[in-house]
Every structure is written in structure tokens, then in C-alpha cells.
Amino acid sequence: MVHAIKNTPSCLDWKLVYRDPLPTWISEHARIALIGDSAHPFLPTSVQGASQAIEDGVTVATVLKLCGSKEEIPTAMLAYENIRYDHVCQAQETGKSIREMWHKADLYAQEFDPESIKMPFRPWIFENDAEKVAIAKVSALGLSVLTNSIRKSRRRLRRVNCLDRDGRRRRKSVD
Q1: By C-alpha distance, which of 86, 66, 88 is closest to 142?
Q2: What percent of the chain has pLDDT over 70?
């Protein structure tokens, strides 16, 4: 190991870069939808990147199945975004808070408590059933109701809505 380190010409400083959620994951005419990291990248500390991408895919498949006709696909794509957006935004915030917890921990303190850096269990993330959520929301509201709020917001200034570290809603203009 020492030999390998001495003979390494340089080291890479790997930065963890965070990006706020995009204001929308759907193209202007709702024909293209982003899912997974292309829509909402997760920090490794959130331990959610792959599972949230799978939930996106399940939600897209569910709303497409429920939309009924090819003409309703744009409505289904807008419903997908409406169903998933707040949940994913909140899940992204957990990665930032866990990163802060782990990076601030003094592992060499005499009275270090391993419980202080334990991965928190969040049932609303780990027990989420994306298919059941999509079916319930579409059944309760219908696809068109789910999409109306998105269509109205596209006429106004696009905003990123998510929760800050204290659980308060924050708005950030994205021009």
C-alpha cells in the first residue's frame, strides 16, 4: 500500500456537488419526462438515488396505464411530476442533512457516541409504495386535476418548491 501511494503521480479531489431540484421534469408539450438523477440527483449520503429512480419509473408506468388513451399521455406525464415532485424534493433534503451530520461528527472525541451518526429511519421514504400512491392520487383526484396546477404554474414564473433543513417551505426563482 505504501509503495502504491508513493508511486501515485497525483490524487483526485472528488467533490460532492449538489443541485437544487429542477423546476419541472416535463418538456413544454409534456412529451418527454426526466426520471431519476436526470430530474433530481441525490447525494450519496441520502442512499436514495436508485430507489427514487425506480419509484419514478413505477409512477410513470402507473399513470400511463391509468391514462386510457394515447392522447392522454401528456396529461399522464404531468400527473407523474405532480405525484412525485414534493416527495422527491423532501427526500433530497435528507441527503443534505445526513451529509452535515456525518461531516460534523468528531469521530476521535473521547466520548464519541456512535448513535449520533446513525442513519435515521424515515418511514415516509423507506416504506413508500409508489404504485399505491399513484393509484390513490389518480383515483381521488383524476389525471386532469393533478395536471391543472402544473399548467397554471407554467404560465407564471417557474419556481423551485422544496423544504429547507428545518422543514419550512422555501421558494427560489429560476429564470
Answers
A1: 66
A2: 81
Rg for the chain, CA atoms, rounded? 20
Nine-digit cell string for 96: 443534505
Of the candidates 79, 97, 109, 64, the residue with the CA atom closest to the CA atom of residue 165: 97
* pTM over 0.85, yes/no: no
Instruction: Report the alpha-carbon distance of residue 172 to residue 19 in Å, rounded.
Output: 13
Q: Tell me which residue of 18, 38, 61 sits closest to 165, measured CA to CA.
A: 18
Asked if the model's pLDDT at residue 93 lies above 50, the reply is yes
Give the pLDDT confidence of 39-92 residue by residue, as tens digits: 988 888 888 889 999 999 999 999 999 988 888 899 999 999 999 998 998 888
State the Cα–Cα distance between residues 134 and 143, nearest whole angstrom.
10
Q: Which three cell numbers stand for residue 40?
A: 433530481
How is the chain split into domains, by residue range? 2-173
Instruction: Please name which of 157, 136, 156, 155 lies closest in space to residue 146, comparing C-alpha atoms.
Output: 136
